[in-house]
Amino acid sequence: MGECNYCTLRRIKKKAWNKKQRVTKLTGFMGGIEVFVHPPDVVIEVGAKEEHHPQHKYWVCWLMAIGDHCTC
User: Fold this and answer.
1) Is the pLDDT confidence value at 51 over 90?
2) CA of 68: how far to CAs of 5, 7, 49, 65, in Å?
3) Are 6 and 17 a contacting pair, CB within 8 Å?
4) Is residue 72 part of a domain?
5) Is 44 part of a structural domain of the chain?
6) Which residue in 59, 62, 20 sits closest to 39, CA to CA?
7) How many structural domains comprise the chain?
8) Which of 36, 33, 35 is nearest to 64 (CA)?
9) Could you tell me the residue range of the domain that residue 51 belongs to?
10) Model's pTM, two decimal places?
């Protein structure tokens, strides 16, 4: 088994914090969650996951669901 989504998001947040970046979560495809890591002055727009969107470069991953605790 791999890392659970809760721990994956925690790891992403820690790396972002160390680089003074922000993490934004948006509802994505099929009700999942799109995760973006970006500079603090950037506001992620709906549709940023699409390849043609200028903010696509900030997209990190899609998670089906994020629990409220570790399930590793």
Assistant:
1) no
2) 10, 10, 24, 10
3) no
4) no
5) yes
6) 20
7) 1
8) 33
9) 5-63
10) 0.88
